Amino acid sequence: MFGLGTIINIFAIVCGGVLGTFFGKHLSKENQNALISACGLCTLFIGIAGCLEQMLKVEGPHLSSSGVMVIILSYAIGTLIGTIGKLEEKIEKFGEFLKAKANRQNDNNFITAFVVSSLTVCIGAMAVVGAIQDGINQDISILLAKSVLDFVIILILTASLGIGCAFSAIPVGIFQGSITLLAVFIEPVLTSKALDYLSMTGSILIFCVGVNLIFGKKFEVANMLPVLLVAVLFAYLPWFN
């Protein structure tokens, strides 16, 4: 079935959100804060590990030296584009729309929960590659693995931040569904080098999400999303290959 992987992923996120809501009701505020810190710490190291894996990749007898320059330029250009386009503000407004539709006006954490969880489950190579494989070969193995991970992540985040996390199923459906529909056109463009750069810069975004979870909002991560596209474009420039 075309798009089955994304449908399963959406279902896993919703289930994680529902179970997380019931679990969270039995946690004190102190326990919820501890859970947020634990999630943030894990997110930090996942981001660090993913980035360093690409930056320290050996090419021939030497370490690849293009990674640092790609990171610097991608984040400078991409963040500027996102800030000018006010992506963070637009995503938060969408969160406010969902909050109103869900009748959660008294939930002060709703928008934060929605934004943090959406960024966490949408950013990463698994979402892109899995959706492409689903669209071209109807191979849902990558998205099945991602669904299990997302279920656990959303369950824990929902227990600490609230039901807003479950609504991250919407951007996941839009993002992965669009990639699946356009997979035939995207697959030839996504070379191994482009995928490496996507994974490397995406891992830093995940690191920023972890910082926000632990220390409060320090980075406007949504404004940095164009970094991913800029990094992929760099993969086609001879100076970065």
UniProtKB/TrEMBL annotation:
Record's protein name: DUF554 domain-containing protein
Family matches, as InterPro entries: DUF554
Listed transmembrane segments: 6-23, 35-56, 68-87, 108-132, 152-185, 197-215, 221-240
UniProt KW keywords: Membrane, Transmembrane, Transmembrane helix
